[in-house]
Design brief:
The structure holds two protein chains of two kinds. Chain A is an alpha/beta fold. Helix content of chain A is 47%, strand content 11%. Chain A has 19 helices and twelve strands. The longest helix of chain A has 20 residues. Classes of the chains: A alpha/beta, B mainly alpha.
Chain lengths: 453, 317
């Protein structure tokens, strides 16, 4: 027994010693004042020999192709700036970025997700530079309209999302709209709907005809957020949606408009507009089934365009969710790809800004289009291959020009992605009523807003 | 997990629960252990301390802070723990983990006992072959297992296809999207996964039971069932304890399976504590709260494992 007591004692002493020597978590990061940028240089060739470390997540197909091409072109144009590229998958980047940024030698340029739990946290910790001075010098504010810039804007304390300083530049855009299978619509005698009422009417016609009106896979929880957002865009004023989605003080979920949106979703389930078992169906197989001719409509993002065009050719079309009338102001859920930001500890912020400018300028937009991406800026100038790509590009240009882009609802609070995803599954499975659903997400929102101030 | 090493340790050691600290049997020279012994322990202890004790203590420390992983943390005492206990969703998550214990541990041991005694008794030809087949799920990475089963459970997947083919189509459903079926469906993957391990462990144990015990039982007129309860079951008590320990731990720390199949859905019906740890630490930036859940989970695992070993040890010679 003596020995086991000795071991216990030793462990105890060791533990106390460790606790005593270990300092408060986070104390190795100095608390500095919010960074400011006063004078900037835009002459990248005259910056001397510098190395830029860039962390991105552009690892798939067209994304990887555009990044490589633009990096090569940048190197050719500015041989004095050497790019050290580190690319990781989205998930890997997200989990390592936090540690990398709080270290002493973070990368110069990083791709950080727009949301509060990523970019917002980094801004709060003074780890990203405000880009406004460069924006003036390079004319970025003309490149991106205000409805796009809000996705990369935060107050300097990171508490207010959607306004304040500019903290990142996104390359690509995305918008959630409605894909339709022309053959299936024609078989049921349905014309492409021009208004929301016509759209809902066509769902019933298709159902009566024996088709699956809406293809839907919601195993991952988040796909329902896009469907709900699309419906909410028809029932709720834009300002209210923006306020809710950016987690601002003021608008609440408990309004008749949001109630109507939730009720509409339930009605769609009741009337059997979705394929059966959607809560247990994967997102990918759902759109793959759609591409093979199951389902008339698919509510989905522009990221599906390249794949759907490949398999469906001229048989598929894309439209923005229609409004109350054919000429109504366009409103659609959408956003930007992951924006590129400059870190506070970067030794060459001017070179980094030149890089940001280069990968988002007019030439970059052409490269993005050629590599099957949807450029955020200069989208209306692009020559598209026609068909679905043309639909997608013109829809995106319409909604951006009309300032009708509304943010993803899960941007609202750090926990909203989980709360809303689970609450929507509950609502869709009739485990909760529209009122209970709204109460659940309102609870999440108000708890955050109270804490955030 | 390396297969060979794992098997060697699990199968070969009759009593892996005996720790150096327990006073059992003679230690050679009477009286105090020699001081020099600590020197021998030191290298291993340093590695253990650096990679296990320090992170563990650090996690305990983190759990007392409100920390976003970036800025200076603030001390909150036991607030994180209080929040863990009060959070209805988290209590649910721990409840789900307990349900998974049934599927990951209890069921595989029951199935494994039957399977192993049949294999052992029948002395079938090609026993190594069957042993390999039964063990095969263990060789596959859990993520791969989860992806494969996700396809099986899909609304148009093979499970519903089979049910349709035999005329039981009405039982078919979107397994992972069904509020009452999702958790058992995930649990069943665990049963499939762990049964092989348990069976092989028990087979090894049964192989070491002397034939004379069975002969004696038969002379006393025992049938196969009686034989099983009188001879086989008591003889493999140690193996059962090991199997239960391993599988219970696997059940409680399930992460990859849930992450790949349902992400805690539908609603929150399949959320588990370790998924919450990941979610809070890496997605939400609530490092302190994540550490508190982790510490609670460690305590639960430790106490259950301790209990199992206590029961397993009792009655050992």
């Amino acid at each position: 027994m003596i020995r086991s007591r000795a071991v216990t004692l030793m462990t105890g002493v060791l533990g106390v010693a460790l606790l005593a020597t270990a300092c408060t978590p986070g104390s190795n990061t100095p608390t500095t004042a919010a960074p400011t940028v006063s004078s900037v240089k835009t002459d990248a060739a005259g910056l001397g020999n510098v190395t830029l470390t860039v962390w991105d997540q552009e690892v798939r197909g067209g994304q990887a192709a555009q990044m490589k091409k633009l990096n090569d072109e940048f190197q050719k144009k500015y041989p004095n700036i050497k790019i050290k590229r580190v690319s990781r998958s989205f998930e890997d980047l997200k989990t390592t970025l936090r540690l990398a940024l709080s270290g002493n030698e973070p990368p110069d340029v990083v791709q950080a997700n727009n949301g509060r739990s990523d970019m917002g946290e980094f801004v709060k910790a003074n780890e990203l530079l405000p880009l406004d001075t460069w924006a003036k010098a390079y004319g970025w504010n003309d490149r991106y309209p205000a409805s796009v810039r809000q996705y990369v804007s935060y107050s300097p304390d990171g508490k207010t999302f959607g306004e304040g300083n500019l903290y990142g530049l996104p390359q690509v855009g995305e918008v959630v709209g409605i894909y339709y299978d022309k053959k299936v619509l024609a078989a049921a005698g349905v014309k492409q709907p021009a208004t929301w009422a016509e759209f809902e009417q066509s769902l019933q016609t298709l159902k009566d005809d024996g088709a699956v009106p809406l293809m839907f896979g919601n195993l991952e929880k988040w796909p329902a957020i896009h469907i709900f957002g699309t419906i909410q865009g028809r029932t709720t004023p834009v300002d209210q949606i923006r306020g809710l989605a950016f987690g601002r003080k003021g608008p609440t979920w408990n309004t008749p408009e949001n109630q109507k949106a939730a009720q509409t979703l339930v009605t769609w389930v009741d009337k059997g507009y979705f394929n059966s078992g959607f809560n247990g169906k994967d997102y990918d197989p759902a759109w793959q089934d759609f591409s093979k001719g199951t389902g008339a409509y698919l509510i989905g993002g522009t990221w599906l365009q390249a794949d759907l065009q490949k398999t469906m050719g001229a048989n598929v079309g894309f439209m923005l969710p229609p409004g109350a009338s054919a000429d109504a102001k366009p409103i659609a859920t959408g956003g930007t790809g992951l924006p590129f930001s400059i870190t506070t500890k970067s030794k060459n912020p001017d070179a980094a800004a030149a890089y940001l400018d280069f990968i988002t300028n007019k030439n970059a937009a052409t490269v993005l289009t050629e590599t099957e991406n949807l450029p955020l800026a200069y989208v209306a100038d692009q020559k598209t291959g026609g068909g679905l790509q043309k639909d997608v590009f013109s829809s995106f240009a319409t909604v951006v020009d009309g300032e009708g882009l509304v943010p993803y609802l899960d941007f609202a609070t750090p926990t909203m992605y989980d709360t809303l995803g689970a609450a929507l599954q509950d609502l869709l499975a009739k485990k909760s009523t529209p009122d209970q659903f709204l109460a659940t997400i309102e609870k999440d929102r108000s708890a955050f807003v109270t804490k955030n101030g | 997990m390396t297969l060979g090493a794992g098997l060697g340790v699990r199968g070969g050691n009759a009593d892996p629960n005996r720790r150096p600290g327990t006073t059992k049997g003679s230690r050679g020279a009477p009286g105090e252990p020699r001081r020099i012994a600590y020197l021998y322990i030191l290298p291993a202890f340093l590695v253990y301390a650096a990679f296990l004790l320090y992170p563990l203590l650090r996690a305990v420390q983190l759990s007392f802070y409100d920390w976003d992983g970036l800025t200076l943390a603030s001390w909150v005492g036991f607030d994180n723990y209080a929040a863990v206990l009060q959070d209805e969703g988290l209590r649910g998550a721990f409840g789900h983990a307990l349900v998974l214990i049934f599927f990951f541990a209890v069921l595989p041991v029951a199935v494994g006992l039957v399977l192993a005694s049949i294999l052992n008794r029948a002395r079938v030809r090609g026993l190594p072959f069957f042993r390999t087949v039964v063990f095969l799920p263990q060789v596959i990475a859990m993520v791969v297992v989860a992806v494969a089963w996700r396809r099986i459970y899909a609304p148009d997947g093979s499970l519903n296809g089979i049910l349709d083919a035999v005329g039981l189509g009405s039982l078919g459903r979107a397994w992972l999207g069904d509020y009452s079926a999702a958790l058992p469906a995930i649990g069943f993957i665990g049963t499939w996964f762990e049964t092989g391990l348990v069976t092989v462990l028990l087979l090894a144990g049964m192989g070491r039971i002397g034939n004379e015990l069975y002969e004696a039982a038969r002379l006393d007129g025992a049938g196969p069932v009686r034989e099983f309860f009188a001879v086989t079951l008591p003889s493999v008590r140690g193996e059962i304890a090991v199997a239960l320990t391993l599988t219970v731990i696997a059940a409680l720390r399930t992460f990859d399976l849930v992450y790949v199949t349902t992400r805690g859905g539908p609603g929150n019906t399949t959320s588990v504590p370790s998924y919450e740890v990941y979610n809070r630490a890496f997605q939400l930036g609530q490092v302190g709260s994540a550490a508190a859940i982790g510490v609670c989970l460690t305590l639960v695992i430790f106490s259950i494992a301790f209990l199992i070993n206590r029961i397993g040890d009792r009655g050992d010679a």
